[in-house]
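Exercise: predict the fold of this chain.
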Amino acid sequence: MIRKNQMAQVSSFGRLVIFITGLLLASVVKSTTTQGVMQLSLQEQLDKDVPFNHSQWVGTHNSYNAREWDSAYWADPNQDISIYDQLNSGVRELTLDVGDYGTFLGENQLRLCHGICAGGEKKFRRGLESIVRWLEEGNLQSVIMLKLEINSDHYGQIADQLRGELGNYLYEANRSGGGSNSCVGLPVDSISKQDVLDAGKNVIAINTDSVCPQSGRFRSVVHLGLQYRNFYKDKFSKPSDSNACELITSDVRKQMTRLHDPSTLYGIGSGGKGPQDKEITESNVSGYLSCALNIFEMFWFNGDGSAGHLEPDDLLWSWESTEPNNWRGNENCAVSKANGRFNDVPCLNSYHFACRDGNDWKVTFTEADWSQGEAACTYEYPGSVFDVPYNGYDNARLMKAKRAAGVSVVWLAYHDQNKEGVWQRGSKK
């Protein structure tokens, strides 16, 4: 991201390149109704009750810089599909760069751009309108993290537009202790997605600048950085290795971790980083999932025409590729297979049970039908509960417990017995 003090001039020749590129790159809209998208929408429900620093978010870097959304302007996009289609593809973390472009009728024109805006960019409120449109199309069960990177001094106006466009969907920072006199970090160790939903909200905004703005309106609306107990950090932590999992076992794990991919289609506006330089790839994404990376801020997610870009099913750690399929109309309870993936099977089948015992997983000696799960866990491991993993790391720990017990398939406390296709955690109908 280019900061305020960095010039971002675009020549008339560059404008011509932009226009021609937009014409050449007009793409067919990518399907957002695939099996992978459906599975990802189920997976996002599994971590609703855990703190943000144990949740996982499918995200996009420079979400607004998309050729489908503004192909006649952006010569070097980070994304293929629009903000609206990104949300339909399973994205729940969006990044918007907000800058200035003059005034109109006494109001500063806030636009989505890197550094200094040139005037042809989409307005900030257009990005917010896309979020509202998606939420109001039957998606109020989801929580969206909106990360703002700000190249403007008009913080009060930014807050006003957030309130004006997102309205009652916005979980304001004043709910976390922020207000006109002070900024507050996102309380990552205590707030959960369900907390946001229980408040009747769906969007939580965060800015990772290190300086608290003077605007009281902004302080009341946007979380500034991350808060864990008495520790404050302005940035997300970045893992060094997809297999080391060092951010899980150290104190740093109490913060939220993020890996962002600054690659662009041609590598012009990203310091030379093109598709071949992606940081989140098909080869390392499973490792990051198993290490509980919180935010996957990707390049070209679910797009067309760029070799090696990630699809929704690449972000899955839960369901098997063709599941749940309710084979023969009689599969309403979930098991963890030998490979750790979920499968829906008849609830009257007989398997061992997955029991959460504090921070550990245990597997029962008992084999019975799904309805006996809570009783079996309580009997064999007093104090434990019949449960289901909530993220990739939690699932990897269950796999370890299964191997230790010499068991390949176990029941999970996860079912859709009340309504087909509506999967819920727990053993109660």
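Check your answer against the key: Residues 1-29 have pLDDT under 50 and may be disordered.
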